[in-house]
Amino acid sequence: MRKIIFDLDVLRSFVTGMDLGSYAKAADRLGRSTSAISAQLKKLEEQARTPIFRKAGRGLALTDAGETMLGYARRLLDLNDEAATALHGTELEGWVRLGLQEDFGETLLPDVLGRFARAHPKVRIEARVVRNTELVERVTSGKLDLALAWSDGFRTEYTDRIAEVPICWVGPANGAVQWHADSGEAMPLASLEAPCLLRNIATKTLDRAGIGWRISFVSPSLGGLWAATAAGLGLALRTPLGLPQKVRQLTPGEAGLPALPKLDLVLHRAVAEASPATERLASIMLQAVRQAVEAVPQSRIFEDASDYDVVTA
Questions:
Q1: How far apart are CA 264 and CA 154, in angstroms?
Q2: In this structure, which topology does domain 168-260 adopt according to CATH?
Q3: In contact, 238 and 132? CB cutoff 8 Å
Q4: Cystine design at 23: which of 17, 46, 94, 263 (Cβ 3.0–4.6 Å)?
Q5: If we measure between CA atoms, which residue out of 160, 97, 106 comes closest to residue 126?
Q6: In what residue span(s) does the HTH lysR-type domain sit (predicted)?
Q7: What's the topology of domain 94-164+263-294?
Q8: pLDDT by residue (tens digit) across 80-113?
């Protein structure tokens, strides 16, 4: 069977159209005619040997194969652009101060820093993995240039809304949950130290459902929270992103637990127009975050687009 070799130019048109929500806008952005873009999309389906798009009302939506193709297309283009920047890109210098929530410290940070350092070895990065409250305080006071954080609607002056991610109850990976809502006992809640956004959501959700609760374990770090949850000391509330193998996402309704809302993932910026080094790091981080979020069911990624003719929901 002949190997499939995808055309990067075609993939760029495909991804640009999805990012902008319109292939007419993609044509303008890329300096091509709409007919040329249409021809490229037809070529992509021919190369993939399977339908990528399906009709959805007056617009287009991705098939399951198209969703898979989009993820790989982003990765192929990222690697291509990273190689081009490393070989011929602008020699960036200076400092970038980056802050992240603990959920991303082990899973996202090594990949982002590695990619950035290979392309821009003269830029020095100061990274802090801390809690939401401290991230917001540091970015608003100018002590951080960028901060990736959870948000219940709060925005700093310069905030990009990246995605909406589901929240889940978390229990030990091995064994059934020992507590049930019908038991009449207060639910043991394992939590990070206050102030904690997800702790507040957990207690408010339980209160609205009429379920009693007690704080059974408090930790200053996410690592401690995972250890306590894995040991069965209590149930926790988190997103599916970055869950270690020793804990698991509980299924909807398991143990009689109530349904949960979704949570915004945002990127706070200290200033409207940052340095080229800061903007490049922000771009790499956003690419990595979107790839991680795309793998989480029921998540929704936000793009800078309006008047969609590509159906993304």
A1: 9
A2: D-Maltodextrin-Binding Protein; domain 2 (3.40.190)
A3: no
A4: 17
A5: 97
A6: 6-63
A7: D-Maltodextrin-Binding Protein; domain 2 (3.40.190)
A8: 877 776 666 557 788 999 999 888 887 888 888 8
The residues, any chain, with a CB within 8 Å of residue 242's CB and separated by 6 or more, are 103, 104, 106, 107, 108
DSSP result, 214-231: EEEEEESSHHHHHHHHHT
CATH fold match for the domains 94-164+263-294 and 168-260: yes
Q: Are strands 262-269 and 146-151 parallel, antiparallel or unpaired?
A: antiparallel
H/E element holding 252? none
Query: What ranges do the domains of the chain cover?
Result: 8-88, 94-164+263-294, 168-260
Asked whether the bond before 166 is cis by omega within 30 degrees of 0, the reply is no
Q: Please tell me the total number of residues recorded for the chain in this structure.
A: 313
What pLDDT digit, counting tens, does each position of 175-225 carry?
A: 778 899 999 899 999 999 988 999 999 999 999 999 999 999 999 999 999
